[in-house]
Amino acid sequence: MNKAEKHTRKAAGEDPIKRMQIMDGARQVFMRMGYDAASMNDITREAGVSKGTIYVYFQNKEDLFSALVELEREKMLAATRLSLQYDTPIAETLQQYGVAVAKLLTKNGYVRLMRILLGVIDRIPEPSGNFLSCMPMTSRLVLKEYLQTQTSAGLLDIDDCELASQQFVDLAYGGLIKKQLFCQASCEPQIDEIQRVVHSAVRLFMAGYGKDN
Question: What are the residue boundaries of the HTH tetR-type domain, all occurrences included (predicted)?
């Protein structure tokens, strides 16, 4: 082996491309079969790796599932923060934020993952609980910070920003998510429906907390 090969070759279990290849395969299997029915053999076939390789990166199915859940949680955190802008009018910002988060959380993939997590939370409490609590908690926390900033600037009249953020979440997309999660809707909501629901939420929210009201 020459010096260039030594420099570029990854140590066992440290190749990020291979790790992501395994996780992509695992995502497909878990989404298709659920947690209990999925096996490491199914995942190795889907990912196109050997069984020996998969165990270099993950101890067992639970370890792999936990890593996948954490990855999805991090992606959701990043997307939630990016969707909230501080340099546009408040009503416009809330509309953009509500639509972006609603679109993300009502996607079939996220809904499917939520259902899987609800089914295994008693057996795998840490990643399941972290993800399920992260969704509403993250959107509320990010929104709370925004509302506090706007209230301090004298643009909103809010006494309890934590309560206000919870109210907006419930109004803007709480109902949409519940319909998907509990099979009250047969498909993802259309963008027109999301925009309509969020717009109504923004109007109610600004009527209650807008500085001119």
Answer: 16-76
